[in-house]
Structure formats: structure tokens, C-alpha cells
Amino acid sequence: MLTRSDLPEEPVALTIRGAEGHEHKVTVGRRAAGGVSLTCSCAMFSRETWCRHTVDVLCMRLRALGITDPDAEFALETAVMGTKAEDVAHELDRALIAYSRALERLDASRSASLAADAIETMAGIARDLADAATTLADAALRFRRALAAAPETDRLP
Percentage of the chain with pLDDT > 70? Predict the structure, then answer.
């Protein structure tokens, strides 16, 4: 088990390459009481206080983000492992995957046909998409709340 002295004192700053090809700076720090501080320089994080980049970082998908430094990986791992932020990031990740698959299914099945079977198929797909969107919205809210619950001023010594 890690002690407070084993945890990184300084936030871990990573420059990552997003799926769109832009570079973003993600900063992750461990706070007292198991909290995690998290920032990203992307527009979505500024707008929503979460983004796919931060979820990928908390889910330790560093190689996919262009991070190959083992020291950065170790520092990040010690900062986030076993935290509420890590747990809700994995939950949000699953919700993002389900939502993406529901959108793909909608795109692949779109039909202007008014035949009963086509309408029933589209209704089922629409229900699945609505369920996935609701689950995603709930998971994103839990993620934002988990990050907001990290004490702002109670940093580790």
C-alpha cells in the first residue's frame, strides 16, 4: 500500500496527441483524502470540465496518446490508482463506448423506408441510442462530481 510519502508531490504534466491530431496538455495531481485534480487544455474540457483525453489518461491509455516515458507512466499510475476518479473514469469510458456503438448502429441502419419492419428496427435503435445517451450523461455527471469533490486547497504536503 502506498503511503503519503510515496505519492507524487507535483502534478504530472503530459503533452498528449488527441485523435484529431492536436496536442493538448493534461495535468493530473493527487490531492489529500484520495482526490485527484485534473485539467486539460482542450476546448471541451474548458466547456464541460471533462474530455476524452482525461478519461483516456485516467484509464492509463498512455501509449495511444503518444506517451512512452516510463517515469511519467509510473508517476501517473501512483497518482490515480485506487482513486474515485479512476473508478468513475472507467465507468465513463464504458458509457462512451456504448454511446459510440449506438451511434454507429444508427448510421449503419438509417432508412427512409416506411415499411413496418424498417420502422420497428429504427424505433429499437432509437431507444438504444436514447438509453446510451442517458447513461453517458449520468456517467459524465458522476465524473465531474468526483473531480469537484477533490479538496481544492488540501494538497498533499
Answer: 89
